[in-house]
Amino acid sequence: MPIDLKKIGQALKEKREEKGLAVSDISDSLCLRKSLIQAIENGEWQILPHEVYVRGYVREYAHLLNMNGEITSELNKSDEKPTVVEIPIQQKVDQQPRHIQKRVIIYPLIFVLVIAFFVLNQVYKERSASKQAPRQTTEQASVNVASNNTEKQNLPEFTVVKKLMITCHERTWISVVIDGTEKKEFMLNPQDMLVLNAKDNFDLLIGNAGGVKLLLNGKGFELTGQSGEVKRVKVS
To answer: Is 49 buried (19+), middle (13-18) or exposed (0-12) by CB count in 10 A?
Structure first.
């Protein structure tokens, strides 16, 4: 049965006001939109995502306000009578080959796309560098050789760009802060792929940690989490 969001939201709101916190303070701390915080406090299911994500939001909110015990007991009450959906055995048997077939096709395809992306990116950089190199006359070349020792220390340093690829196999939302300044939010569906660039790091808040995989500069990044679990992770 669904959680009693009216009761839980009211308790969270009263605790927040008791601590003298504004909705914007909660929004900044949890990296969630103000509209989501207000919808939780008012019990407005119609503008909220699936219940599994709302449970994650509520747990994060309760932890921030030191209300873990009270809120957890309310969440557990809604789990006392779970709805069990029986799936016929024949249906499971029929669907399993299709599921396996999709994995056999999709995962190699994603791997090939990742490799192709980095290869093309490297080729593009090399071509751009060759086009931008100035053509020097014999006279200019001799002048550059004479002044090489004095100008060498002033050459610009190349900026290292970090690329984070996120592949999704279960529907999830993601909030990311890039290099501590740029904030973005996404809703990903199964088979979606997202590529982000940063100079230093990515601060991620993932609504379904068991539903995504991370690749940093082409290498797998270990992300532990179960389906429906809200996870905050910093990738650098």
So the answer is: middle
